[in-house]
Amino acid sequence: MAAHLLQRLLGTVGVLFSMSILIFAVVHIVPGNVAYAILGEYATPASVAVLEAKLGLNDPLPLQYWRWFDGMLHGDLGASLVMSRPAGPLIMEALGHSAILAGLSFVLVAASGIALGIYTATHQGRFSDKIATLAQFVFIAIPDFFWAILAVLLFASWLHLLPATGYAPLADAGVLNWAAHLVLPVLVLSCGFVAHVSRLTRSSMIEVLQSRFVLAARAKGFSNRRVLWRHALPNALLPAITILAVDFGLLIGGIVVIETVFAYPGLGRLLVFAIEHHDLPLLQAGMMVVTATYALANLLADLCYAVLNPRIRVGSAAA
Amino acid sequence: MIAVATNATMLIATPRRLPTVLLFGVAVLSVIVVVAVIGIWLTPYDPTAFAVRSRLLPPSTAHPFGTDEFGRDVLSRVLAGGHLSLAIGFGAMLISLLIGVPLGLLAAFHRGVTEAAIMRTVDLLISLPPVLLGLLILAVTPPSLGKTIIAVGLAYIPILARLSRAVGLGLLREDFVQAAFARGEGALVILWHEILPNAWPPIIVECGLRVTFAILLGSALSFLGLGPQPPSSEWGLMIAESREFLTQAPWVGLAPGLCLSVLLVSVNLVGEGLREWLDPQLTEHSHG
Amino acid sequence: MDEIQTTMHDALSGLHRPLLEIAGLSVAYPTSRGWLRALDDVSLSIPAGAVLGLVGESGSGKSSVVMALLGLLGSSARVRAAHMAFDGQDLLTRAPSLRGRRIGVVFQDTSAVLNPALTVGSQVAEPLLVHRRLRRSEAWSRATELLAEMGIARPAQVMHCYPHQLSGGMKQRVGIATALASEPDLLLLDEPTTALDVTVEAQILDLLDGLRVRHGLSMLLVSHNLAIVDRLCDRVAVLYAGRVTETGAAASVFSRPRHPYTKGLLAALPRPHLAHPGRLSPIAGRLPDLVATDPGCNFRPRCAFAGTGCEQPQALLGHDHQARCHRVGEIARMPWPAEVSHGSPVPFRKRSVVRSEHPEAPLVQATGLSRAFTTGGLLQGLFGKGGRGVLAVDDVSLAIRPGEIVGLVGESGCGKSTLGRLLLRLVPPDAGRLRFDGTDIAARPGLDFRRRAQIVFQNPDTSLNPRQTVGAILRRPLRRFGIARGGAEALEIGRLLELVRLPPGFADRYPHQLSGGEKQRVGIARALATRPDFLVCDETVSALDVSVQAVVLNLLRDLRDELGVAYLFISHDIGVIAHIADRVAVMYQGSLVEEGGVRDVLHPPYHPYTEALLCSVPIIGKRRGPTDELRSTKEADGSATVSGCKFSGRCPRKQGPICDTAPPPWQEVDRGHRIRCHIPLATLNDVPPWLPARLPADAAHG
């Protein structure tokens, strides 16, 4: 198992490093971008030149990259051009807010998605399964931003039950208010993924239920409950981890849209803000943080997979 | 392992009866596609014409979907924008198919350095969720329809590459492919005669699913302002623009939203129908 | 002592009522064409303490019997029975409460049957927890005892292992232990040893025999292997296409078969113990359609004794030894007719003549071929098994003369398939040279070598491209090597089909429309399309039923006689090799241990591994003697080292430390016969032959 994990760790480091190069390259690929972005389209070449010199944009690209990368290693994520503040604290605060949203949604998606998947797999072919399948189709297909619009319309505008936008810090507003601001974003973010996860879990569970060792367990006269919980489920865990890892990535993508709709002050909204205002250093730094978060999540998933899979945990050492 | 003898005739799953899901989905989808493609010519009003006096009118016989904040007929705008979603969906799918599948098969054939290079690049692209990859690419250049298609296609290349590599590796192990190697046949010949005819079912199924996700991703990017720019009536963009007046005039956002949903549901049905028809035993490992 | 008394008491009290009784069992599955009748009016009974063997080839429905008894057929299957009772209780309704508790089952593929996510211990102990209601600690220790009883060394350690860490033989022992944990009265065994090596199979059979004697366990053994049924069972029932065709005492059925199908099966079996095995007698034709069933005798189309009256429904005739054939009396003395050798139908001239002047000079000469197992990844090498260098093929040298059939025999994982592919340059060697017809062959050989050296694969289902017709499949080599073009192609395809005795109309069929034997023959035709001089047959008959296997073996022999092709015939089955090979090479863990003419290798002196292989092969009529235990292999005790003899860990005749430290030398027994062992030839010569020259069973089959 050690070899396996070391391999994964090295892979993650490699990916982070390559990603930083890619992000940097993409941002700087169009020359004159940053300066014009700040000064506007009608800036004079002279002022552009001055700004470029000041920001060190005339140096060779590898040097600029190294400056940025080195800075990141020391905790300096650059500075936001628009807000004239260090990017680091901005991003971290936004990350914290997004983490709450992502965390709550992920727990909801994992719990209900897997539970629903197992339920439909064990009731395969029955009416409840067909209804669930139909619902899954619909929920996967409808875009999350449309759900968001509908939810805001229904709960905020018409029913006045929940706030439509924003975020209330726990310290200031109290638990109820804090929670109220989170309900809609979490629900909307989760619904598509619950459908996706439950669909994938269903098919992997069906596969496990049709395997020979489940047949053998039934042949040994164990009750259906025992066969399901003790024999089938442990084998459905591993594919579930893979499914959840993929969906976590999609969740991160969904957060960008949801935060925009609900004006939730998270990292996604910050990135969109950076794009709208051509705040390229902020964009660079923000992308790096997102990549690192996703990479860490994947590493964690790999770790869980390695621990739960006897073949990796114990190795193939013969008895 | 010594296989137990099998003498009885084995029935292989050659294309069987078409499942109803597929037929239904194809029917609905065909209608939508036709309407979307010729939509431009079906508009009752000019989709870009401002008519400030009739702004934010609710649905009526004159304007079945109402009007937006500039007085533009929403129905006309919806009809004019349909082909954009389709273009993104199918265009991105084609890009990921035409680039991803050859790359994956190449990696399966030439194991070693080529494979490592291709798969590490794929891993790199996959390390950012698709929305963020799209954001990154579209953030640094003025967005347009073409660039959106390319960005979404790029985001899905890794998935098709991984799939075709897995399929390719599986097929390369089969005895009939080994027999072709034993005849000294070249890689391209083997690919054409032995691999591709057996590889297309899972690849086609995945492509069907990709269209759904490509349309979703494309409209999400447009919603964020990174797709076709105004005055385009791409549906995601229309929904974004409708947010300002959501409480006053919900129909401005609901109309394109509903149409987008219907399109996506029918595309999803076709994708699922294809999967059921071509190989129901395929595990659904669809990435978004 | 107490155990025996209890068993006898139970047996006596149940004497008047068979433990298991099935009457008129019919099972059908729905298909798009209609109901598929897997079982048709099957009746069996097993008295307490007896062992019944259920013999059948694929498609006979034997697995459906096991599933029906357990009530695991699935809701779509239609199960009807006049009477299906276990110890008086109706199985149709009470199976769920009886299975696992009083009826145990052992399946074939233990790799799939053991739960990969649970430890071995928890799986063996589970029936004790559930059915015997023991406490955890009691269940665990009882389970450990059970594993020890099954012959597993270090049972306490194995309890904590996961299934993927165990070998095939150990997994099957675990499977048997799990089945016996709840102390059932009846044990169902569905092909329990088919997936195992023959030496391991012999040990499992010994184990089962021992259980039968010690515990008085009743068993239903389902298998296609008549020899192991003969070994273990008192009574036997033969199943053909869902119907019982013959039933009786095992000794009686196998020495004096009454039904033509049983006669045919026995005639098709390879008989390696005979001095001159001769041609096998196959059963021509294919299985009948199970949807549109024949109301009369369903064996009729393939029966050598078919005549008038066979189209009528047949009943089981006889008293204790019954057969479903109305001609039983007339054909009682007649053996299944032997297959006549066909002459070559059309002149089939080979394209090139072997250049070598000397008939003795080898066509294929391999020297010092070695290849390591493929390892995974860079880091694996750093952390893992780097230093030991386990080789799949270890410094093997082999020569094959023109037109000669060399049999390569060994158990799974010994590297024989890899060696075959090395000889064809399908896999690059790590070391060694290959000469073909006098010229060295490079790592990427030219087209000429490819044309003259071909391969036939094991699995008929994966050796043909499912999307191509037979004609398209055969056209590929013709086009590649420019053997025939345009109109001549069709002619050539026709000739090839005729060569393998398939009708010309098959050219338009797809592989899924062919049976296993027919697919295998297409594979042979494809390999012969280039008119090669050398053919590697990689377990070509291993996946076929015995009756079909005979067809293909005879065909291969005839083709060699007609065309002068040399074969490397790879197989794990020494019986098959004895029938077809001129010379034999025995392989163990990557090295050759014995080589020589087929008669020489099958008679003493033997390499200890060859001896163990031969001892382990079950043959009808052969009874295990006390000395056989001694001669068979032990479980590996982990003492084998890289430097010494690889077999030393399992060798029953191990000499001492020299076997671990020094590589054994080649000793010449005779011209062309050599053995690689430390034991002096004089001692090896003293060993008695593994089989008497003739068995009582031989009398029945011509």
Q: What's the multimeric state?
A: heterotrimer
Strand content of chain C: 15-25%
Describe the largest sheet of chain C: 8 strands, mixed
Give the topology string of chain B: H per helix, E per strand. Answer: HHHHHHHHH
Describe, in plain words, how this protein is organized in 3D.
The complex is a heterotrimer of chains A (319), B (288) and C (702). Chain A is built from 14 helices and two strands. With 319 residues, chain A is an all-alpha fold. Chain A starts with a helix and ends in a 6-residue tail after the last helix. With 288 residues, chain B is mainly alpha-helical. Chain B has helices spanning 20-42, 74-109, 113-126, 130-139, 145-172, 175-182, 187-223, 235-242, 251-278. With 702 residues, chain C is an alpha/beta fold. The longest helix of chain C has 18 residues, at 198-215. At the A-B interface, helix 1, helix 6, helix 7, helix 9 and helix 11 of A face helix 3, helix 4, helix 7, helix 8 and helix 9 of B.
Which key features would you list for this structure?
heterotrimer, B: 288 residues, 9 helices, 67% helix, elongated, disordered C terminus, C: 702 residues, alpha/beta, eight-stranded mixed β-sheet, seven-stranded mixed β-sheet, globular
Summarize the structure.
In chain B, 67% of the residues lie in helices and 0% in strands. With 288 residues, chain B is mainly α.
